[in-house]
Design a protein that fits this description.
Layout: H1 2-58, H2 73-81, H3 84-97, H4 100-113, H5 119-131, H6 135-148, H7 153-166, H8 169-182, H9 187-200, H10 203-216, H11 220-225, H12 239-246
Helix pairs in contact: 3-4, 4-5, 5-6, 5-7, 6-7, 7-8, 7-9, 8-9, 9-10
């Protein structure tokens, strides 16, 4: 038994050696291979980290990008310059401050943007031209206004005033009559009729218009006393007596 057992043991040992020895050797080879791969990876990672660290030291710090400056006020300012109501308000301020030329520029811009909206802009502009004795521009202003505000008594009266200043008495009378017909309570065109007829030399019509104006408003007496156009009526009519009679 022992000899056979010993023989079997040797065979098993020889078999183990023959069978397992190559596997142990392959495992050793594979172990060395993976150790080489791992070492290479570690070495590569260390090199990469070293290069990145060195690159970051040399690279200038990044400055956060800033938003462009706000320009929200620019569109608002542009919008105001294109707003006829805003331009008219600015023109009013300039007129009240005594800067007639600047006011004229602003009224013109406002009317250019919206010619059919603001009657008062035409009235103010025409009045400024009239005060500067630029009767041609005043006439053009009121003529343009009447395209949009055809039966406006103020515009008609002012147009008559411009024509009277230019010496067109008959044309002025026509506009004063139109203005008076459009507004029965509006005293100025009635008073201006008296002035126009007086300039024309028609004392009868001048006196009739003056009496009517005085009956509409008591301040007419004060206007007439200082008005050179009505000097010709002094011999035909006493302002004091007429004013008492009309009351």
């Amino acid at each position: 038994m022992s000899s056979i057992y010993d023989a079997l043991q040797r065979l098993q040992e020889d078999g183990k050696a023959s069978v397992y020895a190559p596997m142990h050797a392959e495992a050793g080879k594979r172990g060395r291979f993976w150790m080489i791969v791992i070492g290479a990876v570690v070495l590569s990672s260390a090199s990469t980290a070293l290069i990145y660290s060195h690159w970051m030291e040399d690279k200038p710090p990044q400055v956060p990008r800033q938003a462009p400056p706000s320009v929200t006020n620019a569109p608002a300012a542009q919008a105001r310059r294109l707003d006829p109501a805003w331009l008219f308000a600015q023109a009013e301020q300039q007129r009240m401050a005594g800067d007639s030329q600047k006011a004229i520029e602003l009224y013109v811009k406002a009317l250019h943007l919206a010619p059919d909206r603001n009657k008062d802009a035409y009235v103010r502009l025409g009045t400024l031209y009239f005060e500067q004795q630029d009767y041609e521009k005043a006439s053009l202003t009121y003529h343009a206004a009447l395209k949009y505000f055809k039966n406006d008594a103020v515009l008609l009266n002012n147009m008559g005033g411009v024509l009277l200043a230019k010496g067109d008495t008959d044309g002025a009378i026509g506009y004063f009559r139109l203005a008076s017909n459009c507004s029965k309570d509006y005293v100025e065109p009635v008073y201006n009729l008296a002035c126009a007829y007086a300039r024309k030399g028609d004392k009868t019509m001048a006196l009739s218009a003056l009496k009517k104006a005085l009956s509409m408003h008591p301040d007419v007496k004060l206007w007439a006393e200082k008005d050179p156009d009505l000097e010709v009526l002094k011999d035909a009519w006493s302002m004091k007596d007429t004013s008492k009679g009309e009351r």
